[in-house]
Every structure is written in structure tokens, then in C-alpha cells.
Design brief:
This protein is mainly α and 399 residues long. Helices cover 82% and strands 0% of the residues. Helix 6 runs antiparallel to helix 15, helix 11 packs antiparallel against helix 15 and helix 12 runs parallel beside helix 15. The chain is globular, with a radius of gyration of 20 Å. The protein starts with a helix and ends with a helix.
Length: 399
């Protein structure tokens, strides 16, 4: 391993741990929010609305969080986000205690804001690594998601009845302790401050930045991977518990392994991208997602749900990490905060819409039809890749 990269591991690994602990809030919300919504909402079709608010919070906070870090640095920015998340966890517990659905949606929105800050850990790892090791740095941080995949659902399940007559309230209280640990780690590690070039450098015009073919394909891949993942993942606990009659422990088990599937491939995704290229890995991710949909369509056993959700996570990882890697190749230092923020705005916007429609589609047209809708989203990525290669071929002919 390169000596300079080995030294950077002293910072990348703590970032991965912070990402893991922070993302466990999201995995808890994925496991429990739709069930809490189903329990305390008078309209059962709105059961997935809290998760939509979580993703909306993530969507809306990405750009402000990135611009804030441009001014105050990564460390201070992450601490601000974690404090907001702790406030959201506390109010979520209160809203469950008092069975206030609107307040619960607001609380999960605050947790979503933390999610917007959390997603920037992957970009923070790029700040102090060379171009050659960017993909590996992103993958190493994303590995923290494996830990998150176990912490969130485990906390949801084990602390579900910690407070009497308030399922999952204790789970959110436990999250506050995790947030305190994150802040302690952030206070210990050293992160580079924004450079003068980042703060005051000349930026290109908006059209030049955001109409780059590489950026367009990258953001579409990330958007659709998140939309497909959010739609199927959000509907899964409902499909398993409310329509198939499985206990919550089975749904938590499936979601747990889904999140492992999302992040475990990060052990080798970076190497695959470096060897075969980002586009090839995006295409592989599309194929894996199609296998996920097929398995969901052929049966409703726990094994079907488990296999499909693991494949869904792997497909998401391939498409999302590849898209993120391509985005890092499209901006100059002075444009970093803007491009990263806009990227996450669109990515989590698509995820928010998909999760919102998940509950509606699940109730209105059923589990099988919902899965068929995901094929349309994957088709958009295929068309974008075809267009991208057409543009590249045209430029070569002109040159």
C-alpha cells in the first residue's frame, strides 16, 4: 500500500466510524419509522411519510451543509449536524410517547438533516487523498455502513419496548448516546481546513459545471440507484409485517442484511471501478437490481425478501459509489462545495419522492406492481449511459 495513503488511514478510519454511527440513525429510521407511522397515524396510507420527511431533510440539508463546511471546515460542520440529529432523536421519542404523528414527521426531518451532513463524510475522505486513491478513500468510508446496518436495526429491535406503551421511543433515546460518541471522535481527530483556493478561487459558470456529460450520467446513476433502493426498501417492512404477517424481528433482520449489502461491497468496489471503469460497474449494478426485482416477484417467503434486499443493497453500492467517483472528477477546488451539495440535493430528492410513493403504491397497487415500477427508473440510467457514449463518440469524430 502507498505510504502516504497508509498515513491517511489514521483519519479515514475514524471518519468511517463516524459515518457508521451517524448512519445508524438512518438505518433505525428505515427499520422503524414506517411502523411507527402505521401505529400513530390515523391514515395508514401515510405510514411511509416520516421516512419521506427523513429523506427530504437529507435532500435539503446537503447543499447548506456543504457550503457551511466550506466556511467553517468539516469538523465543525459535522458537529453541528450531529447536534441537530440529537435534537431530532429526543423529539422523536417524545412524539411517540404522545402519539403525535405530525411532530414525529418533524423529528424525523431533523434526523434527515443529520443524514445530509452524514453523506459528506465520503467527500471529506477525498479532501486529503490524491486523485489516484479517491475511489478507495470513498469506499473505505462507505464501509462504515456495514456497522450501521447492524446498529440501527438492533437498537430498533432491542430497545423497542424500553418505554412502556411507546414502541421505538427508547430506540431513539439510545441514539442520543451514539451521537455523543460521534462528537467525541470528531473533537479528537484532525481534519484539514478549507484552503484559500476553495474559499476564494474562481469558479466556472453554472452551465459549464452542471452540463458536463460525465456529471449528468454520474448524478442520474446516483439518483436512480437511491430511488430504486428507497422505494423497494421502504415498502419491504410494510409488505412483510402488515401484508404477509411476518413479525417485526424478521423485517429488522432483512433490513439489517440489506444495509450490509449496501456497504460490504465497498471492500472491493473501489478496486473494481479502478480496473473496469465506473460505467461498467454502474451497468453491473443495474443488472443486480433487476435480479432483486425478479426475486421479489416470484415469492413472498422471508428468504425471498432477504435475498432480494441484499441484492438491492449491492446494486445500489455499485451504482452510487461509481456515481460519486465520477462526480469527484467534474469540479475544481473552488467548485467542490457547490457541486457536492447540488449532487446530494438531487440524489436525496429522488430518494424522498420514491419513499413517499412507496407507501402509496404499496397500498394502492400492491407489492408486485411496485417492483415493476422500479424497472422504469433503471431504464432511465441505461438511456443516460447510451447518450453518454454517443456524446463521447461524437466528440472523437469531431476531433
Amino acid at each position: 500500500m502507498n505510504t502516504s495513503f497508509s498515513k491517511n488511514l489514521n483519519t479515514i478510519l475514524p471518519l468511517s466510524i463516524c459515518f457508521a454511527l451517524s448512519a445508524s440513525t438512518s438505518s433505525l429510521t428505515v427499520s422503524a419509522s414506517s411502523l411507527v407511522g402505521f401505529e400513530i397515524s390515523s391514515n395508514k396510507m401515510l405510514a411511509t411519510l416520516p421516512l419521506s420527511f427523513h429523506l427530504i431533510g437529507t435532500m435539503l440539508s446537503g447543499l447548506p451543509a456543504s457550503l457551511l463546511m466550506k466556511r467553517v471546515g468539516r469538523k465543525s460542520g459535522f458537529i453541528v449536524g450531529t447536534i441537530i440529529g440529537s435534537s431530532g432523536a429526543a423529539t422523536a421519542a417524545l412524539s411517540i410517547l404522545y402519539k403525535n404523528f405530525a411532530f414525529f414527521c418533524f423529528s424525523v426531518f431533523c434526523l434527515g438533516i443529520l443524514g445530509g451532513f452524514t453523506q459528506l463524510y465520503r467527500f471529506a475522505a477525498v479532501d486529503f487523498t490524491t486523485k489516484e486513491f479517491r475511489t478507495k478513500a470513498v469506499s473505505l468510508v462507505m464501509l462504515g455502513g456495514i456497522i450501521a446496518g447492524f446498529i440501527g436495526p438492533s437498537v430498533a429491535s432491542k430497545a423497542k419496548y424500553l418505554l412502556q406503551d411507546a414502541p421505538f421511543a427508547g430506540s431513539y433515546i439510545f441514539m442520543i448516546l451514539i451521537h455523543i460518541i460521534i462528537i467525541i471522535i470528531l473533537l479528537i481527530i484532525r481534519l484539514p481546513k478549507p484552503s484559500i483556493e476553495e474559499k476564494t478561487g474562481i469558479t466556472r459558470n453554472i452551465k459549464t459545471i452542471f452540463f458536463q456529460p460525465k456529471f449528468i450520467v454520474a448524478i442520474i446513476s446516483s439518483m436512480m440507484s437511491y430511488a430504486v433502493m428507497a422505494m423497494i426498501m421502504t415498502a419491504t417492512p410494510l409488505a412483510m409485517t402488515e401484508y404477509c404477517g411476518y413479525p417485526f424481528s424478521d423485517a429488522a433482520f432483512v433490513i439489517q442484511w440489506h444495509i450490509v449489502g449496501m456497504f460490504a461491497p465497498s471492500f472491493f468496489t473501489g478496486s473494481l471501478i479502478k480496473r473496469f471503469g465506473a460505467i461498467a460497474i454502474i451497468i453491473t449494478g443495474i443488472i443486480i437490481n433487476l435480479f432483486c426485482i425478479f426475486i421479489n416477484l416470484v415469492g413472498n417467503d422471508v428468504l425471498n425478501f432477504w435475498t432480494a434486499l441484499v441484492l438491492l443493497g449491492i446494486g445500489w453500492n455499485f451504482m452510487f459509489v461509481s456515481g460519486t467517483t465520477m462526480v469527484t472528477e467534474t469540479y475544481q477546488p473552488s467548485e467542490k462545495a457547490l457541486v457536492q451539495g447540488v449532487n446530494d440535493l438531487f440524489v436525496f430528492g429522488s430518494a424522498a419522492l420514491a419513499s413517499l410513493f412507496a407507501g402509496v403504491l404499496q397500498t394502492a397497487i400492491g407489492w408486485e406492481s411496485l417492483n415493476l415500477c422500479a424497472i422504469f427508473l433503471l431504464t432511465i440510467v441505461v438511456l443516460a449511459i447510451i447518450w453518454y457514449y454517443f456524446v463521447l463518440s461524437y466528440k472523437k469524430i469531431v476531433l
